[in-house]
Design goal:
This protein is 28% helix and 27% strand. With 407 residues, it is of the alpha+beta class. The protein has four domains: 96 residues, 3-Layer(aba) Sandwich (Rossmann fold); 60 residues, 2-Layer Sandwich (Dna Ligase, domain 1); 128 residues, D-amino Acid Aminotransferase, Chain A, domain 1; 84 residues, Aldehyde Oxidoreductase, domain 3. It comes from Streptomyces humicola.
C-alpha cells in the first residue's frame, strides 16, 4: 500500500469568469481542490472534479474559518490556501495562520494593501515616491497641504481601482473633503503629473518569471468618473526596460521574491519614474485576457501556482516579448441606474479589434460592474504600441452606447 498522500488546497473564489478556472490552473498537478465560493462563482467550478464545494453569501473571515474547519474535519488538513482576488488577500492570509498552513501572513500582505506602508518601504530603498501623509484626527488641511503640496490626491489607504480617489485643487476644497472621510482610513499624497504605467508579472526566486510594461490610455480615476480607459503594451526597448528595472527595485524593497504583482508607477512629465502603488495579484480589467491571448501566459494560472508553491505553468524561455496588445473599457452609462437601448459592435469595423464584449440590449446597470460587467470591452492587437493606441482612440471615437434612465 502506498504512503503517497495527494496534497489538498483550499480555494477562496469570488470570480464568475475565466479568472476562476482554478481546476484548469492546476492541470498536470497531482492535487485536490476544495472551494468556498460566492454563488456567482459557482458556474465556473467543475463540482464533479472538486474535493468539495461550499457556497456562502460572504467571504468574511469568520465565515471562511468556520467553513474551512468543517472541510478539514471532513477531508483532513489542507496544504495551502489561495484567494487571488484583491478583495480576499487579507482574509486568505488570516485563514492561513488560523489553519497553520504555509504561505503569506497578514503582516506581509498588508505591504501590498496599505498605501502608506508600501510607499514607506519603497522610499526606504531610495526610490522616488510621492510625498504623502497618513491622516489622523489631528490632521488639518493646512498641515496636510504643507507636507504634500497642492494640488494633492486624497485616497483610501487600502482600496483598489481608484475607488474613493479625489484630486484636491485648493485649501478650501481640502477642508471640505477632510470633513467627509474617515481619516484613519485615508491618506493624502502629492499629485504628480505624467503618464501612468502598469507593470504586470510573476516573480520567482527573486527574479521575473514574466514581466510586461504597459501605459494607460486615460486612467483608472478617469474611468471612475465615467470616461473610457484603456492600455497599450509598451514595445520592447529602453522605455520598457527602465520601467521594469524600477519595478524590480520596488518589489525587492517590499520583499516579494515569489508571487504575482500589478504595480503602477507614474512616468512624470520630467521623465522621472515615481512609484504609485502595487497589488499582490494579477492586474484587473482585460490585462490578463490580452496576456493569455496574445503572449501565451495565463497570469491567473501563474498566480495560483506561485501562491501555493507549485511549479510554473509556462516556460519563460518559450514566451515571446510582449508587444502590440491592448484593450479599451467603456464604463457603465450614466446617470445610474440605466438601461441599454443600443450599442455599436466594432469587431468588423476597426481591424485591430479582435474581441469585444458588449452589454445586452435591455441590460440594467447599477454601478457595481467593476471592470467586467460594463458598457463595453474591446481587445486590441497591432504591430506595435503606436498601432494599439491609434486603434484605442478609434474605438473610443466610434463606439456608441445609448442608454435610458432605469426606474
Amino acid at each position: 500500500m502506498s504512503d503517497h498522500r495527494i496534497p489538498q488546497y483550499l480555494v477562496i473564489n469570488r470570480f464568475d469568469d475565466e479568472c476562476g478556472h482554478y481546476q484548469r490552473f492546476a492541470a498536470g498537478i497531482d492535487c485536490r481542490l476544495a472551494f468556498v465560493t460566492l454563488p456567482a462563482g459557482l458556474p465556473v467550478i467543475d463540482r464533479s472534479a472538486a474535493l468539495d464545494t461550499v457556497v456562502v453569501d460572504s467571504l468574511g473571515h469568520d465565515t471562511l474559518l468556520a467553513k474551512a474547519e468543517a472541510l478539514m474535519a471532513k477531508h483532513g488538513p489542507f496544504d495551502g490556501v489561495v484567494g487571488i482576488s484583491e478583495r480576499d488577500v487579507i482574509a486568505t492570509a488570516r485563514l492561513r495562520a488560523d489553519l497553520e498552513v504555509p504561505g503569506w501572513r497578514e503582516d506581509f500582505v498588508r505591504r501590498f494593501k496599505d498605501k502608506p506602508t508600501m510607499k514607506q518601504a519603497v522610499a526606504a530603498a531610495g526610490l522616488r515616491v510621492p510625498a504623502f501623509v497618513a491622516l489622523d484626527e489631528g490632521s488639518s488641511a493646512e498641515s496636510v497641504a504643507e507636507a504634500v503640496g497642492l494640488p494633492l490626491v486624497l485616497k483610501p489607504r487600502a482600496e483598489a481601482a481608484s475607488r474613493g480617489v479625489v484630486v484636491i485643487e485648493d485649501l478650501e476644497e481640502l477642508r471640505t473633503a477632510l470633513k467627509d472621510v474617515d481619516r484613519a482610513d485615508h491618506q493624502c499624497e502629492e499629485y504628480v503629473s505624467g503618464t501612468v504605467l502598469h507593470i504586470d508579472g510573476i516573480r520567482r526566486g527573486g527574479g521575473f518569471h514574466f514581466v510586461s510594461a504597459s501605459a494607460y490610455l486615460n486612467t483608472c480615476l478617469d474611468f471612475a468618473h465615467g470616461l473610457p480607459m484603456g492600455s497599450a503594451v509598451i514595445d520592447p526597448g529602453p522605455r520598457a526596460d527602465r520601467a521594469v528595472a524600477f519595478t524590480a527595485g520596488c518589489l525587492d524593497a517590499l520583499g516579494l521574491d515569489d508571487g504575482p504583482f500589478h504595480l503602477e508607477l507614474i512616468e512624470a512629465d520630467s521623465g522621472e519614474l515615481v512609484f504609485l502603488e502595487v497589488g499582490i495579484r494579477p492586474g484587473g480589467a482585460d490585462i490578463p485576457t490580452i496576456h493569455r491571448d496574445l503572449f501565451g501566459i495565463d497570469l491567473f494560472a501563474e498566480a495560483f501556482r506561485v501562491t501555493l508553491g507549485l511549479p510554473p505553468a509556462t516556460d519563460p524561455a518559450r514566451l515571446p516579448q510582449p508587444r502590440g496588445g491592448g484593450w479599451v473599457a467603456v464604463p457603465e452609462p450614466r446617470p445610474l441606474p440605466s438601461r441599454v437601448v443600443s450599442r455599436t459592435p466594432l469587431l468588423d469595423l476597426v481591424p485591430e479589434v479582435y474581441g469585444e464584449i458588449l452589454p445586452e440590449v435591455g441590460r440594467v446597470f447599477t454601478g457595481d460592474g467593476g471592470y467586467d460587467h460594463i458598457g463595453g470591452r474591446f481587445l486590441l492587437r497591432a504591430a506595435d504600441s503606436a498601432g494599439v493606441e491609434a486603434a484605442a482612440a478609434e474605438v473610443i471615437r466610434r463606439y456608441r452606447l445609448v442608454a435610458e434612465p432605469a426606474r
